[in-house]
Automatic annotation (TrEMBL), chain A:
Enzyme class: oxidoreductase
Membrane topology: Multi-pass membrane protein
PROSITE patterns in the record: COX3 (PS50253)
E.C. numbers: 1.10.3.-
Domain of life: Bacteria
Name of the protein this chain belongs to: Quinol oxidase subunit 3
Keyword terms: Cell membrane, Membrane, Oxidoreductase, Transmembrane, Transmembrane helix
Compartment(s) where it occurs, according to its Swiss-Prot or TrEMBL record: Cell membrane
Organism: Lentibacillus populi
Pfam families reported for this sequence: COX3
InterPro entries linked to this entry: Cyt_c/ubiquinol_Oxase_su3, Cyt_c_oxidase-like_su3, Cyt_c_oxidase_su3-like_sf, Cyt_c_oxidase_su3_a-hlx, QoxC, Ubiquinol_oxase_su3_dom
UniProtKB/TrEMBL annotation, chain B:
EC number: 1.10.3.-
Keyword flag Transport: yes
Biological-process GO terms, alphabetical: aerobic respiration; electron transport coupled proton transport; respiratory electron transport chain
Catalytic activities: 4 Fe(II)-[cytochrome c] + O2 + 8 H(+)(in) = 4 Fe(III)-[cytochrome c] + 2 H2O + 4 H(+)(out); 2 a quinol + O2 = 2 a quinone + 2 H2O
Source species, domain of life: Bacteria
Occurrences of domain Cytochrome oxidase subunit I profile (ranges): 36-550
Gene behind the chain: qoxB
UniProt keyword list: Cell membrane, Copper, Electron transport, Heme, Hydrogen ion transport, Ion transport, Iron, Membrane, Metal-binding, Oxidoreductase, Respiratory chain, Translocase, Transmembrane, Transmembrane helix, Transport
Transmembrane region(s): 12-35, 56-76, 96-121, 133-156, 183-207, 227-249, 269-292, 304-326, 332-355, 376-400, 412-434, 446-467, 487-510, 585-618
Details of cofactor binding: Heme A3.
GO molecular function, one term: copper ion binding
Topology versus the membrane: Multi-pass membrane protein
Native source species: Lentibacillus populi
Name by which UniProt lists this protein: Quinol oxidase subunit 1
TrEMBL record, chain C:
Keyword terms of this UniProt record: Cell membrane, Membrane, Oxidoreductase, Transmembrane, Transmembrane helix
Name of the protein in question: Quinol oxidase subunit 4
Substrates-to-products reaction catalysed: 2 a quinol + O2 = 2 a quinone + 2 H2O
EC number(s) recorded for this UniProt protein: 1.10.3.-
Chief site of localization: membrane
Entry annotated with the keyword RNA-binding: no
Keyword Transmembrane helix listed: yes
Gene name per UniProt: qoxD
UniProt-listed GO biological process terms: aerobic electron transport chain; ATP synthesis coupled electron transport; electron transport coupled proton transport
An example molecular function term from Gene Ontology annotations: cytochrome bo3 ubiquinol oxidase activity
Species in which this protein is naturally found: Lentibacillus populi
Lineage of the organism: Bacteria, Bacillati, Bacillota, Bacilli, Bacillales
Length: 201, 647, 119
């Protein structure tokens, strides 16, 4: 195996264990792709099966969907900036941008919860039909991932305040950033294939 | 809930089971207390992160599950031996064929193979442990508690009874109310977490932690097959996770995925189940191919024939395994075009598999075969598996499948593939690597007795089932007609033959523990790959120093050059991970959460889930860096284990 | 290998602007344009794939050589997307294509079908 010098690269790649963890997380993300693909497949096969509940185009709101998308896209950007600041060695910059990311994430979740409550009031619930079961579980699984990601990020903010940017904390921040960007990828597909196509059909 | 709803009542056989459970549990508790072994159990086993010990725990649990699944099988065969027998009730029979299938695939075959991978793969590639030893412990405990949850159903709440495939709408809340199906869903879900984690863990280990010089195409075949198995696990298990979750939500929270109301689509379950289920077949058979390759190369005393063809055929099989799932439900009626596509892809799989058969034969050709027990299992695998494979191609023809579907022809086919493939491999692998694990061989004479009884029993049991199937006997019926009596009776005799073979195998473990000669060198069989370069018992860090690898038979080369894995000049302190009780505690908490969810006690389940999350938070704040073995400690360990300290 | 990353994260800013632009184009195509439905659906799915690529390459440093992980992350994500295609397209093919086909069968068609079986 080629001996590579890692000590001059970013801090999060400097130990063997860190590189293994980051690689393991990439592979985990590949597994997450398979997980979401199953939810997308279920959604696609069950689309149109609304039974007595309202059809999606009657309920979907273009404005709030777009706001949610922009919130999440921006949070993905700010998360990227946080890692950039970390690589510059700025703990203050890192913490600031992580907290901005968290706030955007919570705003996204707020909109999503509000949306779900509206749908339930309109008579589209988890129980009302196959289509709506698939919708709530697909969007809800993504929302749950965002919630877990946010909780994880809070833990890291605490650890960064305790320990500063070290080889271990930088690796953890890098991994949570991968997770956060990945959730943005998933959302792009939910936005396109659930909301946009739902409104076209 | 009343107590008689909580416990299963009214079945004398199950009362017997309860008594047995109470007796065995109290005996274990008594022995541990009497010999003051509780601390030892906790320190050496329950908190270990050592891949070799975790592997041994996997294999012990898998053997226990093989016993449980085997008892189910014997009860089924007894019920089917004679027409209209009422040894089991219809309900009890349904429960037993369900648990037999689930236990054998999920809780026996996979953990047995994962156990062997745990022990062998790091040793074969020259690694000191898994990439993530803590996660490895977590995986084991997730499997262990998943299996425990599933098996508890037999005395508490009632077993699932909708078949191991758990097809909807039968397994939905409307037609299967009560905890039975929930046990299936939560047991598999809990164990599935561990399987996925092992897949990722082992893949990183193999990709990044190989000895210097060991390129991908210099890895031993078993390591290759493990790597590809991990690839399948990583992409197939999330599909099962989702399918199980959707059905759980259907049953407990009233969603409409697989229901007959609300425009649900029951066959979507079959679609998702087999999207995981077919790759799953290869998860349990590819490592088996790897084991046979190692055993055959060792006892034919020859380098494996057609190494790269072997590797590529494994890769192609893995790819195709994701493209054939519909052949499990041709009779759904998706139409001629859909069925034809999957018929063709199914038959394609026979090609790379055939290549492998010829590779094994090529290895045996003009070699000096040493007929050890492990080799006997491997040799008998080839013709037996071919019978299973060829009948598989028959089933793969969509039009013919309309006749074979759900008949004993199918039952015979998958037992021929899974027993001759996976179970023979488990026995071969365990016998072969046993000296590496325990420091002594299994007795060869007893081993051969168990082999011949099991092999003959196997053919007597399952060959007739092809013919009963063609004669029209459907699977999953609990009364046979008189016209099927003779062959069924024969089949039952065979099943008991296998049972006796297994019993001798287990007795052999005890007998060898008492009487077998202890190994003094690490190389019990004249092995070819790196695992045999380590001393026996294997030190906690595996390799004191690593050799430079330039050959697929790395250890053969070392032996020629007179190298060992103890080169005093190159010694350096070795970093080791600390033991941890967290994996055990975390999974025990999730076990209680899942158990609560099985009975739909939502508040308790939520509390349990919160407990699991708290454990994850605690883990996140854990900055334990492990410890080091100093050069002197390594010297001492190596000298005593290599018998060098007397010189 | 660069020692210090640049002060201004140019790559991130370009990626961010691109992703906003692509989202607006997709939303316009679906909600504001009069293009045929089939075109819209294909078009916005392509835009989504491009957006995903932006995240993976520009934000997630998927191919960063300093990681020491070579092409493995790329390789696994690629196969992940292959699995996505198999699972989604395969489910639709199996669960909808065949059935749609049967539902539309006219009685005459079915009869023809029956005759074929006797052949």
């Amino acid at each position: 195996m080629s001996e590579q010098n890692f000590s001059s690269g970013p801090l999060e790649y400097q130990t063997e264990q860190s590189r293994l963890n980051i690689l393991g997380f990439w592979i985990f993300l590949a597994a997450e792709l398979a997980l979401f693909s199953t939810l997308f497949a279920t959604y696609a096969v069950l689309s149109g099966r609304t039974a007595d509940a309202p059809a999606p185009f009657e309920l979907f709101e273009p404005t709030s969907t777009l706001i949610m998308t922009f919130l999440l896209l921006t949070s993905s950007f700010t998360c990227g900036i946080a890692v950039h600041e970390m690589r510059n060695g700025s703990k203050k910059g890192l913490l600031t941008w992580l907290i901005v990311t968290l706030l955007l994430g919570f705003a996204f979740l707020g909109f999503e919860i509000d949306e779900f409550i509206t749908y339930v009031h309109e008579g589209a619930t988890l129980q009302s039909s196959a289509y709506w079961s698939a919708f709530f579980i697909l969007a809800g699984t993504h929302g749950l991932h965002v919630t877990l990601g946010a909780g994880w990020m809070i833990l890291l903010v605490i650890q960064l305040m305790q320990r500063g940017i070290t080889r271990v904390t930088s690796r953890k921040v890098f991994i949570v950033s991968l997770y956060w960007h990945f959730l943005d990828v998933v959302w792009i597909f939910i936005f396109t294939s659930v909301y946009l196509i739902g409104m076209v059909m | 809930m009343k107590l008689d709803e909580f416990f299963v009542t009214g079945e004398p056989l199950i009362y017997g089971g309860m008594v047995a459970i109470v007796l065995v549990t109290s005996a274990i508790i008594f022995l541990l207390t009497y010999f003051k072994k509780w601390k030892w159990l906790w320190r050496e086993w329950l908190t270990t992160v050592d891949h070799k010990k975790i592997g041994i725990m996997y294999i012990l649990s898998a053997l226990a599950m093989l016993f449980r699944g085997g008892m189910d099988a014997l009860m089924m065969r007894t019920q089917l031996a004679v027409p209209d027998l009422n040894f089991l009730s219809a309900q009890h029979y349904d429960e037993i064929f369900t648990t037999h299938g689930t236990v054998m695939i999920i809780f026996m075959a996979m953990p047995f193979l994962i156990g062997l991978m745990n022990i062998v793969v790091p040793l074969q590639i020259g690694a000191r442990d898994f990439a993530f030893p803590f996660v490895n412990a977590l995986s084991f405990w997730s499997f262990f508690f998943g299996a425990l949850l599933f098996n508890v159903s037999f005395v508490i709440g009632g077993s699932p009874d909708a078949g191991w495939t758990s097809y909807t709408p039968l397994s939905g809340a409307a037609l299967s109310p009560g905890p039975g199906q929930n046990f299936y869903l939560m047991g598999l879900q809990l164990a599935g977490i561990g399987t996925l984690a092992t897949g990722i863990n082992l893949m990183v280990t193999i990709l990044k932690m190989r000895a210097p010089g060991m390129k991908m195409f210099k890895m031993p075949i078993f390591t290759w097959s493990s790597l590809i198995t991990c690839f399948i696990i990583i992409f197939a298990f999330p599909i099962l996770t989702v399918a199980l979750a959707l059905l759980t939500i259907d049953r407990i929270f009233g969603s409409q995925f697989f229901t007959l109301t609300g425009e649900g689509l029951p066959m979507m379950w079959a679609n998702l189940f087999w999207m995981w289920g077919h790759p799953e077949v290869y998860i349990v058979v590819l490592p088996a191919f790897g084991i046979f390759s190692e055993v055959i190369a060792t006892f034919a005393h020859k380098r494996i024939f057609g190494y790269s063809a072997m590797v590529w055929s494994i890769i192609i099989i893995a790819g195709l395994s994701f493209l054939v799932w519909v052949h499990h439900f041709f009779t759904m009626g998706a139409g001629a075009f859909v069925n034809s596509v999957f018929s063709v892809s199914t038959m394609l799989i026979a090609v790379p598999t055939g290549v492998k058969i010829f590779n094994w034969l090529g290895t045996l050709h003009k070699s000096k075969i040493e007929f050890s027990t492990a080799m006997l299992w491997a040799l008998s695998f080839i013709p037996s598996f071919v019978i299973g494979g060829v009948t598989g191609v028959m089933l793969g023809m969509a039009a013919a499948d309309y006749q074979f579907h759900n008949s004993y022809f199918l039952v015979a086919h998958f037992h021929y593939v899974l027993i001759a493939g996976t179970v023979f491999a488990c026995f071969a692998g365990l016998t072969y690597w046993y000296p590496k694990m325990f420091g002594h061989k299994l007795n060869e004479r007893l081993g051969k007795w168990s082999f011949w009884l099991f092999l003959i029993g196997f053919h007597v049991c399952f060959l007739p089932q092809y013919f009963i199937g063609l004669d029209g006997m459907p699977r999953r019926i609990f009364h046979i007609g008189p016209e099927w009596f003779t062959l069924n009776f024969l089949s039952t005799i065979g099943a008991f033959g296998m049972g006796i073979g297994f019993a001798i195998f287990v007795y052999n473990i005890y007998y060898s523990f008492r009487y077998s000669k202890r190994e003094t060198t690490g190389d019990a069989w004249g092995g070819r790959t790196l695992e045999w370069a380590t001393p026996t018992p294997v030190p906690p860090y595996n390799f004191a120093t690593l050799p430079e690898v330039n050959n697929i038979d790395a250890f053969m080369e070392m032996k020629e050059k007179g190298e060992t894995t103890f080169d005093e000049k190159k010694l350096q302190p070795i970093h080791m991970p600390s033991n941890s009780g967290k994996p055990f505690i975390m999974m025990a908490i999730l076990f209680f959460a899942s158990f609560a969810l099985v009975f739909e006690w939502i508040t308790l389940a939520a509390i349990g889930l919160a407990g699991g999350l708290i454990m994850m938070i605690i883990r996140s704040f854990d900055y334990d860096e492990g410890y080091h073995f100093s050069v002197n400690e390594i010297k001492q360990i190596e000298q005593s284990r290599r018998g060098l300290d007397h010189e | 290998m660069e020692h210090k990353t640049k002060r201004i994260p140019v790559k991130h800013i370009i990626g961010f602007i691109l992703s906003l632009a692509l989202t607006i184009v997709a939303a316009w195509a679906a909600l504001g344009s009069d293009l045929p439905k089939g075109w819209v659906i294909t078009g916005i799915m392509v835009l989504a794939v491009i957006q995903a690529a932006i995240q993976l390459f520009m934000f997630m440093h998927m191919t960063e050589s300093a990681s020491g992980n070579g092409h493995i992350p790329w390789n696994m994500m690629f196969h992940g997307f292959v699995i996505v295609a198999i699972v989604v397209a395969g489910s639709l093919f199996t669960m909808s294509y065949g059935f749609g086909h049967h539902h539309n069968d006219s009685p005459a068609h079915q009869q023809q079908h029956g005759e074929h079986m006797h052949d």
